[in-house]
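User: Could you walk me through two proteins back to back? I'd like the raw sequence and the C-alpha cells for each, with a short line separating them so I can tell where one ends and the next begins.

Assistant: Of course. Protein one, sequence then structure:
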Amino acid sequence: MEEQRIALLSEVIAFIEANLQEDLDLEQVAAALHYSKYHLHRMFTQTVGLTIHAYIRRRRLTEAARALVFSRRSILDIALSAGYTSQQTFSGVFKDLYKMTPAQFRQVGSFYPLQLEYTLEVPPQNVRLTKEAIRLARGEDIPAWMSLTRQVINGFPHWVETDYRKRLGQSIAYRRAFILFDGPLAVGAMILSQRSGHIHFWAIHPQYHARGLWELFLDKLTGDLMPGRVLTTTTYRAGDKADTGYRQTLLLLGFREDTLLTEFGYPTQRFLFLPPNHAQTQR
C-alpha cells in the first residue's frame, strides 16, 4: 500500500516537472493521472508538506530565479514561462518569496532555490527511531546528508549548495554535526554549536514530520547534549510567505520569539528555547 502511494505521488511530481511551463492546477494534474483530486490533494499535502499548488508555484519561481541569473532572457519571457500573464504579477509574487524584485535578483547574480524537485522514498516499515540513534556525522555520511538537505531547502533562505557543503565538512570535522538514519535514508540532521547553544541547521525529512523526529532531536539536545542550556536558532519572520511551516514547528516545540535579524540579506528572527529550570538557575 505504501509503495503504491509513493509510486503514484512520484508520477505526480514527474508530471509536474515535465510540464512546469504549462498552465497547471490540481484538477489538471489529477485528470492526467486519472485520480480523484480530493484524494490526491490530501495525499500530496500529507507526504510532501505542501499543496500541489504551492509546490508548482515554488518550483516555477525557483526555475525563474535560475533563468534570471544564468540566462539573458527578458524578465517578461521568464515571467510567461513561469505561468504568469504579466511581468507585474510575476514581480510581485517573486518579491514575496525572494524579498527582492526579479531585476534586483538578476543584478545581485546569486542564485538560490526555493524548492528543488522532490524525491519520494519508501521508508522502512515498523522501525522505531530513538534518540540514541542520533549520532555524530562522519565524512561518509555527506552524500546522504546532502540528499536530505535538498529535500528541505524550503526551510533555509539563501541556501547555496557549494557553500553549504563546505561548511558541512567543517562542522563534521569539529564534531558539530549530528545525523539520524532510517536504514540507508538520512531522516534528520542538525549542526549545533555546543559552546553557544545555537542550532545552525536543523532538518527533518518531510515524510517523517508526523513521526515525532522534531521532538526526538529536542529530547537529545535537552537530555544529552545541552542539558539545562538555553538553545537558539533562526527561522522566517512572522508573515513571510516563503515559510512552509518551520516557524510554527518551533513554536509548537516550545521555542519563543526573540530578536529580528537579517542574515545573508534575508529578514529572519531568532528563537529561544528555555529549559524548565532556567528561571531557577538564573536566581
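----
Protein two, same layout:
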Amino acid sequence: MYLLKNALVYAPEKIGVRDILVAGGSIVAMAENLTVSMPDLETIDVKGLIVTPGLIDQHIHVTGGGGEGGPVSRVPEIPLSKLVACGTTTVVGVSGTDSVTRPISALLAKVRALTAEGISGWMYTSNYALPPSLLSKTIRDDLFLVPEVLGVKIAHSDHRSSFPTIDEMLRILSDVRVGGMISGKVGVLHIHMGDLPGGFAAFNEIIDRGIPAKHLRPTHCARNEKLFKEALVWIKERNGVVDLTSGGSCYAGSPVIAVKTAIGEVGPDNLTMSTDGGGSIPRFNAAGDMVGLGTGAPSANLEILQGLVKAGLALETVLPLVTKNPARYLELKKKGRLEAGMDADLCVFTEDLTVRHVMAKGTFLMRDKEIIVKGSFEE
C-alpha cells in the first residue's frame, strides 16, 4: 500500500495537487490532504513532481516485427524494461508482414508474459494476411474465447497487404462487430494504412453500407500528406478515430508537427498515438526492392509527448492521446485515467517530463529512475 503525497495530478486533465492512496492494485482514494493510518503503508512525498496515468501503446510489435529482408531482418522481442523505461504500462500487441515465423499464438504468449511480469497486455488477432490468421476457427471465436483479443488487424492500401476488397472487409467487420457483441468488447478492425491510394474512400463506402465508424481504426495515418488530410476529413465528416504513429515515417518529418497540426484542425478527442515499437520501418526503391530497414522505438510515445509540450501544447491537451483516448475507444474500462476505482497505473515525471517512478497495477516497476522489476530473462 502506498500514499503518494502532494502530487501535481494530470488525470489526464490538470486537477491540481492531490494525495493518491493505492491499495490492492487500484487507486482507492485521491483527494487533498489525505490522512491515512494503515499497517504496512508507505508514504512517498512527490511534491514538485507530475503524476499521470500510465501510458498506453495501442500498436506495438512486442514479439518483434520485420522480416522484409529475410530472416536476418527479424526484429527481436521487446523486453519489459524497455516499456517500463518510457512509462508504458499497457500494450496492445500487433503482428505484421511476417505471418510465417511470427504466428499469432506467439503474440498471445508474449502478451500474457508481459501481463504476468507486471504490466497489462491485449492484442489484435491476425496480421496482413487474408484469410485472417487466427487463434481459433473464426474471428468471433477469437473475440469470445480469448480475453486478450480486442479485434482483428489487417493491412490496406499497402504493397505488402493482401489487397482486401470492400466486400471482404465488410465480412471481416461483420464478424468483428458480432464477436464484440457476444464477448462484451467493442470489437475493432485495426487497419495498417500504406502509401497506396484509396484507403479512406473504401472506409466511406463501408460506413454507407451500414458498419458504424467506431469499428474501423486506421493507423499510420501521417505517413504521407494525402493520407493525413483524408484522415482529418474522416474525423470531421464521419466522427472517426485516427491513430498517428509516433515512431514511424511521417510526411512532416517529425510526428510532433503532424500531431500538433491534427490537434489544431480537429482537436484531440478523436486522436490516439502509438509507437509501432519493435516494428520494422523498411525503405523501398521504385522497383519495390527493400534498400534499408529501421525499427520503431517503444519510447516514441514519450518522446513525442515531450516534444509536443516543448512545442507549446499543454500537457493536458496531448496526454489523452496516449491515456484516456485509447482506453475509451478500446473500452479498457480500468485504464487511462487517475481516479478512485481505476487500476493504479501511474507515471511520476519531473517538470521536464523525465520519468522518475513507474507503477503498474499498484506495484512500482521503476523508482528514482531505476527499473526494479524486469522481465523473466533480463539481468
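The radius of gyration is 20 Å.

Let me know if you want the two compared in more detail.
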